[in-house]
User: Which sequence fits this backbone?
């Protein structure tokens, strides 16, 4: 029953908590990594462009890093900035890679997201402004946070 409730929660989260379309982050700040929209489209491909630049989301349980277990660092697919350590990754049951902490306050920034009639906290790359996902206050200790992140917005550098 608990697994069923987690799956239902993941579905609802996907509909209401891991999407956004306003372009706030890219429009309101000047980020160190700047590219034209044509450059972003060419470098990222359709799915990554949709998530990173248009603040979309991938479907739950479809991302390559959801059940991923290797040790290393997850980086921004747009610019290579280190974002999350595999040491803070956990199985939230939501269908997206989840982390309870970030690598650096400068690398992952928070933005208020008022899309879809609610207020959430969007997380973006601090170097290129790419949309990563959202952060929620329902994660494990020690932070109590759950960074709900789209796999397509990440790359992975394996620990040597």
Assistant:
């Amino acid at each position: 029953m608990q697994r069923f409730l987690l799956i239902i929660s993941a579905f609802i989260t996907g509909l209401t908590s891991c999407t956004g379309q306003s372009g706030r982050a890219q429009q309101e700040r000047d980020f160190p990594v700047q590219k034209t929209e044509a450059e972003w489209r060419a470098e990222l491909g359709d799915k990554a462009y949709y998530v990173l630049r248009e603040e979309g989301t991938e479907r739950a349980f479809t991302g390559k890093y959801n059940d991923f277990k290797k040790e290393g660092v997850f980086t921004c697919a747009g610019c290579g900035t280190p974002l999350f350590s595999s040491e803070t990754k956990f199985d939230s049951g939501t269908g997206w890679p989840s982390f309870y902490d970030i690598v650096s306050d400068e690398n992952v920034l928070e933005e208020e997201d008022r899309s879809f009639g609610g207020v959430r906290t969007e997380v973006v790359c601090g170097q290129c402004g790419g949309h990563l996902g959202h952060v929620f206050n329902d994660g494990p200790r020690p932070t109590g946070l759950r960074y709900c992140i789209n796999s397509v917005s990440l790359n992975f550098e394996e620990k040597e």
Notes: The CA atoms of residues 21 and 134 lie 13 Å apart. The chain has a mean pLDDT of 87. The domain at 2-158 is CATH 2.170.150.20 (Metal Binding Protein, Guanine Nucleotide Exchange Factor; Chain A).
